[in-house]
Amino acid sequence: xxxxxxxxEDKGSGVPVVFVHGHPxxxxxxxxQLERLSSRYRVIAPDLRGYGETTVVPGKTPxxxxxxxxxxxxxxxxxxxxxxxxxxxxxQIVMEAHRARPERVRALILxxxxxxxxxxxxxxxxxxxxxxxLRDGMGPYSDDVLDKMISPHNVQALPDVAAHVLRxxxxxxxxxxxxxxxxxxxxxxxxxxxSRATVPALVVVGEExxxxxxxxxxxxxxxxxGSTLAVIPGAAHMPNLERPDEFTDVVERFLDAL
Length: 258
Fold this sequence. Notes:
The chain is 48% helix and 15% strand. It has a single domain (8-256), classed as Rossmann fold (3-Layer(aba) Sandwich), CATH 3.40.50. The chain is α/β, with parallel strands linked by helices. The longest helix is centred in the middle third of the chain and has 17 residues, at 120-136. The protein has twelve helices and seven strands. The chain has a seven-stranded mixed beta sheet, with helices on both faces. It holds the Pfam family Abhydrolase_1. It comes from Saccharothrix ecbatanensis. GO terms for molecular function: catalytic activity.
């Protein structure tokens, strides 16, 4: 499909909710949510192009290609309108999907993500990071960012979570990760399309997130008409794994209100 094979979970029945993972992770990051929500909703979680068990395509993968892959998967599953939930890069893919095909989106859940276009300085950094993946593999980067992906106290307090996050990062294809990072370097600004959103939207952020701080989530919340904001205490960039019960409670309340 789109000349790639997509690995995915598809569980439960009811309103379809698509979970889009961040970088450099895979669909297993959503396991706590899939287990709990599949009793009441149809939950779909793909591995993105270049990640997990999905085909690796070297080069550059723009967010628009990730969004097209999602819609291709949904077409194959005969699913029309969906709730889209994405974390970090996954959130930017969700924003791109909403910008491109708003008629396919029933609601938005944007988790620890940023709507801003990349800056010229940020673009240079991303290209350098992509080069480092190809040169050094994923190990050095993974070790370096672990205590930003999850908060330092959770690295100590939640060793199983820390091990899972590290395993996902180290296990990611350097070629796939590099292609995605190059694509993100070219991303547009999503504030305009978000300001015109007509569907329910939930913005979630970990209180201790350094990558996309609470202030970024608050600005997104102000931009999206009628949106809801939830700040998860005791979590950084991955509240769905650091505080899975609190995170899933927030998501479930939002879904129940649709």
